[in-house]
């Protein structure tokens, strides 16, 4: 069985990626930087989701020599001009995610146009150092208040209009099929599956 390195130290993201891959029939030995004893991280100083995904994938691929996937994702809020975008993880760094969510809801309490989207860009570097990118987007809106405990990050304020529930309320059954990360991963699976068996 081939090994695939998931270039992330975020346990929630790792869990989600593993579930999506398994549910889509990808049978690989999945490892993380922590599993391999890597304790350093790259500086994500790119200017786009693709840049940051490549920085992570390339860094850990060079350390391990393994086929590697990395993604960079974020929430893009219309009212904030598309921010925090690529800076989603570093947005308001002094705050926890629940505090960030509450802050966004508070500054938007009188805003009627509440459009937003989650964006994910996945970078895959194979054993021959070929590089490919896959993007997934999910449109939604900013909820009027945080809700749900089945997600992480900005999930409690990301409202899916057709269900009138947040991603954190809908949980894995929704996210592993329809989320921005699921969409990017499924594109990669279709493209790379034959090479990974």
Describe this structure in words.
This protein is of the alpha/beta class and 197 residues long. The chain has a single domain (3-196), classed as Maf protein, CATH 3.90.950. It has 6 helices and 7 strands; from the N terminus they run βαβαβαββββααα. It has helices at 11-23, 49-64, 97-107, 167-170, 172-178, 180-196; strands at residues 3-6, 29-31, 68-77, 115-125, 131-142, 158-160, 165-166. It has a 7-stranded mixed sheet with strand order 2-1-3-4-5-6-7. A hairpin with a 4-residue loop joins strand 6 (158-160) and strand 7 (165-166). Helix 1 (11-23) packs across helix 5 and helix 5 (172-178) packs across helix 6. The mean pLDDT is 94.
Spatially, the strands of the biggest sheet line up as 2-1-3-4-5-6-7
Helix content: 25-40%
Structural class: alpha/beta
What is the CATH architecture assignment? Alpha-Beta Complex
Supply database-style keywords:
single chain; 197 residues; alpha/beta; Maf protein; 7-stranded mixed beta sheet; globular
Short summary:
The protein has 197 residues and is an alpha/beta fold. It contains six helices and seven strands, in the order βαβαβαββββααα.
């Amino acid at each position: 069985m081939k090994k695939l390195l998931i270039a992330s130290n975020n346990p929630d993201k790792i869990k989600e990626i593993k579930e999506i891959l398994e549910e889509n029939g990808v049978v690989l030995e999945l490892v993380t930087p922590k599993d391999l004893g890597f304790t350093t991280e790259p500086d994500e100083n790119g200017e786009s989701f693709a840049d940051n995904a490549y920085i992570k994938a390339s860094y850990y691929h060079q350390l391990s020599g393994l086929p590697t996937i990395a993604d960079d994702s974020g929430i893009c809020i219309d009212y904030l001009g598309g921010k925090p975008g690529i800076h989603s993880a570093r947005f308001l760094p002094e705050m926890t995610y629940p505090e960030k969510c509450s802050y966004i809801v508070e500054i938007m309490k009188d805003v009627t146009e509440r459009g937003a989207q989650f964006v994910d860009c996945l970078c895959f570097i194979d054993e021959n150092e070929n590089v490919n990118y896959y993007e997934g987007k999910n449109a939604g809106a900013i909820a009027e208040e945080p809700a749900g405990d089945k997600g992480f990050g900005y999930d409690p304020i990301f409202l899916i209009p057709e269900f009138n529930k947040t991603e954190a309320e809908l949980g894995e059954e929704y996210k592993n099929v329809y989320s921005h990360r699921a969409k990017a991963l499924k594109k990669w699976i279709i493209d790379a599956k034959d090479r990974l068996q």
